[in-house]
Amino acid sequence: MAKVRFFGEIPHNPPGTVYQNRIQMNAAGVHMPTQAGISGTPREGADSVVISGGYKDDIDQGDVIIYTGHGGRDDRWRHIADQELTKGNLALVRSQLEGLPVRVIRGADRRNPYAPASGYRYDGLFRVESHWREVEEGGFQIWRFRLVRETASSISVPSVPETTGIERGNRIPSRTTVTTQRVIRDTALARELKQRYDHSCQICGLRISTPSGSYAEAAHIRPLGSPHNGPDTASNILCLCPNHHTMFDLGVFSINDDLSLVGLHGTLSILPGHAIDTAHLAYHRQHFYEELDRIVDQTIGLPVSDDRSR
Amino acid sequence: MAKVRFFGEIPHNPPGTVYQNRIQMNAAGVHMPTQAGISGTPREGADSVVISGGYKDDIDQGDVIIYTGHGGRDDRWRHIADQELTKGNLALVRSQLEGLPVRVIRGADRRNPYAPASGYRYDGLFRVESHWREVEEGGFQIWRFRLVRETASSISVPSVPETTGIERGNRIPSRTTVTTQRVIRDTALARELKQRYDHSCQICGLRISTPSGSYAEAAHIRPLGSPHNGPDTASNILCLCPNHHTMFDLGVFSINDDLSLVGLHGTLSILPGHAIDTAHLAYHRQHFYEELDRIVDQTIGLPVSDDRSR
Fold first, then answer.
1. Do the chains contact at A210 and B247, CB–CB below 8 Å?
2. Which of A198, B125, B231, B237 is most buried (most C-beta within 10 Å)?
3. Model confidence over B275-287: pLDDT tens digits?
4. Nearest CA to CA, how far is B230 from chain A (Å)?
5. Which residues of B, range 45-64, sit inside 8 Å of A by Cβ?
């Protein structure tokens, strides 16, 4: 059987392990490709990435890395074409969709305080929190990925492993790394907004009624945190059901300045006094929305304006 | 204006701060009630809990605490009635729904290795990951809450704070604590199962198509991790859309042994060869499902069996 891609920490290669070169990393199984920065396939996901000085677009903040995709470069590392969401770039998106851990290896780079002095260093597991497109200085499109360090608590929920179906290649992880819980932390402002909407989705009107009260999610149109630095203001927040929150974050749909939807049929429902900043809508369309070949019918229910009474 | 409930860390009271008694905790604002173990209301959520030796049902694992609700006790701490999902118990559910951080204070308890030697100690922020009901030895119903320690990375995503709407009382947090991303980590087996279902929800048939591939979530019927210790086997996993995953975890609906739904109209769609263990279904019905007064129409779309072709 062919070697199977392994996600997660490689036994006997804890964070901090240093390798002299890429052949050594290949031999250890920490990063298999000897040239490519991203290891993985669109079907399986990406299992590791190397950050080195080559990509001047990368922003290394230690526990958060803004990683730039591959492609569109000449042999002197200059942008000469748009990057496409294929190959390694698409593999990173698959890791985002599946919540797969990505091994991050930093190569020597004297301009980066987080990089090793020489060689390569495995620096632990990160997850792909989001991806979006930007236009670099020369006018070409690039894809960027926000990698966030996994914390012990997010990867150490033990499960009862079974012998069938879990093994990957020859390595059997002693504990399965799983996080199946949704973690949505809202700001006070976001909670207030959700209450004003009575926890009804501004796209479809759904309100999830639980025995203990209703549930909705607050979505920031322009995301909080670097590099987007969207504000935590009502003009940047929507009240959505989990499905439409997921679709919005993944760029399945976006919103025009007149509040009609793009990518889905319908219009954003809005309460009097809740003014959305069209600059944030433009930011989302520009960076997150990508047109599908056709509009897949993913509308669920009717726009909330027709349907709030239920 | 009345004092407003404050969620999160109290300034000048870092984790590890020790208090001699509950009056001191009240003065510091760390835990306001001088008798109740849970501070909060069903509308606002719970901002702090005290764990002390009194509740023999609590399980303290350090970073994970299985906390037992209040009520149903006599003055000698014996169970004499069913606990209800009201008051402090319901406040903890609200904190779960909103993702609010809960301050955990441990009281002296020589049987608990994580408890202080004397007095009370603030031990940091936890989140309410889930809640469920159980029947204790004497046959009475109790409510339990899984509290999981917040990690630095999960609470330190900075945002750009605004002066309006964020202040709580006199305290203005210097950084807003927000996590708006969904973290779903799947086991290899769960990923395989989702692929078999072509990422279509087994309840409503929805498949979220993104520009980079389709998205669904794997739901363990009997949860992984303590105290449930459900197995990571196909017989314990469902492929669901985010909405139905949320509803399932929150007990809005459950599944009968014949795969008909309870709490929602419809039937679980199932592929040939995917056998669900009815013991896990019974576990979910028993611990997570709670009947609403009426069935709210929360079905979205049609059962997948009629609808897989789209």
1. yes
2. B237
3. 999 999 999 999 9
4. 7
5. 63
